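Hi support team,

I've been running sequence recovery on a batch of backbones for a student project. Most finish fine, but this one hangs at about 90% for roughly twenty minutes before it completes. I'm not sure whether the input is malformed or the queue is just slow. I've pasted the structure tokens below so you can try to reproduce it. Let me know if you need the job ID as well.

Thanks,
M.K.
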């Protein structure tokens, strides 16, 4: 790679990518990678990332799978592209089918149930003596129970969802760095088969006996004609189940880690809980769960002197854009009271995160429950925490803490 230190598969870079980002923004804001199976360009400045994400015609989200994996792959058995991997107008159609379930008003209605779940999880953690892996105890179960409720699938199956999520996410983004091999691809295909066997009977059940849930909505959309094919419906369910979980789990975990690293910020929140929402957005900016967002060029262009050909892939480094000194005041300071905070962590443009309202509320509810039920929380050991296997994510998969009850 042409930028020293930029190696998204290297744990040292992943633990602290910010000095590399800073240098990249200054000296090499657009850089072409060398020695990779794909033609890949990285983009580090806010302005450039935003411009790319804004323009879905020039910068496509459709990634031809065979080209991605360069093994002449047979795409049979893999899910059709979800809304995340389609461009308008196909994207517009898919998104409109689920949009309604995620409006601020609908999400707001979930708050009491979210608070009850977060409270129960915290009580259980404290009852167990307060030394827990917070990922298992709180940050993973909360989002999964909520999305299972929205879709209308049994939350008791959450251990299965976790396994799927882990499996699906482990491969995410690896394709860009040559890490997606035929064996992983075969695992993905098996995974999708397993999800298909899970969802098909549930969908059939809703067709026979409709309920007030998203699954019923999708089944009816499928039933009503050409709106949604069966496989598209599966892709949608997989996307909703997986996209929102790991990201939100990571956000809550990163929030806890930042509060541990910045005791003065924790104190500010305890003194003034009304600051929790801005603090969550600051975590989203400062310690973004998603580090990059990929696109594929549809036409030839030049970006800051780097020539780009149609079919080239670009990575918009959100984690870097969010620290861009041209946009944010004191970008390397974690300020839970930051009010002007137009971070790009939920993306930008037509693919702007469908679950942004939901994720913000879940994180807020989780942090409020943690603050309200504890006097203090701290790491219970200082061993390095295990990082997510996917280079897209920045966060930990285990977070042992000691909770001191309020
Ligand atoms: C902290 C939590 C989250 C983060 C950081 C996050 C991040 C993102 C980002 C960056 C995108 C844009 C991808 C692109 O431009 O191609 C996106 C899209 C999406 N997110 Fe999230 N997300 C989070 C939580 C959620 C939740 C809770 C859901 C629940 C349903 C969700 C569902 C989706 C969906 C369906 C899309 C695709 C939207 C589209 O293609 O139009 N996300 N998310």
């Amino acid at each position: 790679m042409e930028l020293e230190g930029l190696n998204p598969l290297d744990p040292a870079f992943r633990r602290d990518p910010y000095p590399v980002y800073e240098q990249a923004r200054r000296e090499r804001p657009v850089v072409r990678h060398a020695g990779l199976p794909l033609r890949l360009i990285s983009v580090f400045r806010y302005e450039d990332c935003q411009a790319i994400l804004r323009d879905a015609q020039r910068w496509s989200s459709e990634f031809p799978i065979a080209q991605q994996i360069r093994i002449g792959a047979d795409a049979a058995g893999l899910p059709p592209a979800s809304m995340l991997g389609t461009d308008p107008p196909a994207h517009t159609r898919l998104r409109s089918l689920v949009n309604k379930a995620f409006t601020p008003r609908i999400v707001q209605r979930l708050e009491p149930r979210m608070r009850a779940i977060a409270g129960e999880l915290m009580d259980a953690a404290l009852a167990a003596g307060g030394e827990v892996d917070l990922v298992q105890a709180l940050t993973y179960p909360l989002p999964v129970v909520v999305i299972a409720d929205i879709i209308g699938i049994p939350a008791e199956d959450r251990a299965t969802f976790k396994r799927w999520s882990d499996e699906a996410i482990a491969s995410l983004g690896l394709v860009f760095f040559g890490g997606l091999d035929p064996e992983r691809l075969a695992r993905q295909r098996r995974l999708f088969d397993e999800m298909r066997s899970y969802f098909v009977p549930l969908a059939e059940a809703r067709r026979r006996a409709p309920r007030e849930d998203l699954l019923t909505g999708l089944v009816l959309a499928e039933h009503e004609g050409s709106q949604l094919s069966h496989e598209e419906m599966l892709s949608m369910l997989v996307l909703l189940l997986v996209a929102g979980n790991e990201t939100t789990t990571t956000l809550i975990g990163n929030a806890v880690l930042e509060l541990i690293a910045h005791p003065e910020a924790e104190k500010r929140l305890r003194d003034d809980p009304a600051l929790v929402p801005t603090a969550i957005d600051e975590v989203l900016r400062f310690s973004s769960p998603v580090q990059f967002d990929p696109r594929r060029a549809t036409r030839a262009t030049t970006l800051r002197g780097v020539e780009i050909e149609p079919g080239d892939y670009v990575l918009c480094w959100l984690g870097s854009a969010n620290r861009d000194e041209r946009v944010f005041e004191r970008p390397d300071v974690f300020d839970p009271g930051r009010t002007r905070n137009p971070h790009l962590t939920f993306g930008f443009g037509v693919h702007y995160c469908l679950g942004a309202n939901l994720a913000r509320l879940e994180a807020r509810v989780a942090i409020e429950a943690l603050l309200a039920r504890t006097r203090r929380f701290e790491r219970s050991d200082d061993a390095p925490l295990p990082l997510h296997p996917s280079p897209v994510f920045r966060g930990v998969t285990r977070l042992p803490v000691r909770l001191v009850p309020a």
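--
Follow-up from support: It reproduced on our side and the slowdown came from queue contention, not your input. Confidence is low (pLDDT under 50) at residues 66-73. No action needed from you.
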